Amino acid sequence: MENIMSNKLDRYDQMILDTLQKQGRITNQELAEAIKLSPSPCLRRVRQMEEEGLIDGYVALLNAKKLGLTLMAFIGISMDKHTPERFEALESTLADYPEVLECHLITGQSADYLLKVIVKDMDAYQQFLLNKLTRIEGVTGVHTSFVMKSPINSTALSVT
């Protein structure tokens, strides 16, 4: 979606998006009260933003530690060939790995891809690295940085 959409957003749209990012289960009535708009136009605005693709969907954010997932890492991956076929194969394979939370094709680094992964512990990371990641055709290098602390961890985008 083009960035032009943010220019069309008035203050009510911005408040709706901001509130929904922080309270995804809020009812339309509660949302309308929070932004000081009547329920009917509030719902129309939400539905329009959904239809236009500005709102991609709704999710529940889970507590990784309570699920036993305590080790997060960022992994730089270097590839042997920079061809669309090689990149598509890697991306397709990574999409099947539940450990991979994010995958980004990047520039400006020695790596071609940057992954955000989460696993139970160092043993699980070793298994992921040796049995999955390094076995992908074309992967020539892997560099891992482990997350020690996440003082800022948000999924909310700025809508102003």
UniProtKB/TrEMBL annotation:
CDD domains: HTH_ARSR. Keywords: DNA-binding, Transcription, Transcription regulation. Pfam families: AsnC_trans_reg, HTH_24. GO terms for cellular component: cytosol. One of its GO terms (biological process) is regulation of DNA-templated transcription. Residues 9-70 form the HTH asnC-type domain. GO terms for molecular function: sequence-specific DNA binding. InterPro entries: ArsR-like_HTH, AsnC-type_HTH_dom, Dimeric_a/b-barrel, Tscrpt_reg_AsnC-like, Tscrpt_reg_AsnC/Lrp_C, WH-like_DNA-bd_sf, WH_DNA-bd_sf. PANTHER family: LEUCINE-RESPONSIVE REGULATORY PROTEIN, TRANSCRIPTIONAL REGULATOR AZLB. This is Transcriptional regulator, AsnC family.
